[in-house]
């Protein structure tokens, strides 16, 4: 299961391998901030409190937009965080900078 918490909406959805956290949020109508969907705006920044191991590795776009400390704390760009095959529990909260 993936728990998605947007600004005002919350959803628990089945993980779909190959889809990003952002695409899950859009598909299930969670109000998740985003503008570009390609890792440049960072409005989809999120805090992943559980299940980072079920997401693909950090992309070049994320290295360009986030600080190394943010990765250590559990932050990702939802548009770049793609769910792996066999994913189990993932908990993500939309945490844009502003």
Automatic annotation (TrEMBL):
<dbReference type="GO" id="GO:0051536">
    <property type="term" value="F:iron-sulfur cluster binding"/>
</dbReference>
<dbReference type="InterPro" id="IPR012675">
    <property type="entry name" value="Beta-grasp_dom_sf"/>
</dbReference>
<feature type="domain" description="2Fe-2S ferredoxin-type">
    <location>
        <begin position="1"/>
        <end position="96"/>
    </location>
</feature>
<protein>
    <submittedName>
        <fullName>(2Fe-2S)-binding protein</fullName>
    </submittedName>
</protein>
<dbReference type="InterPro" id="IPR036010">
    <property type="entry name" value="2Fe-2S_ferredoxin-like_sf"/>
</dbReference>
<dbReference type="InterPro" id="IPR001041">
    <property type="entry name" value="2Fe-2S_ferredoxin-type"/>
</dbReference>
<dbReference type="Pfam" id="PF00111">
    <property type="entry name" value="Fer2"/>
</dbReference>
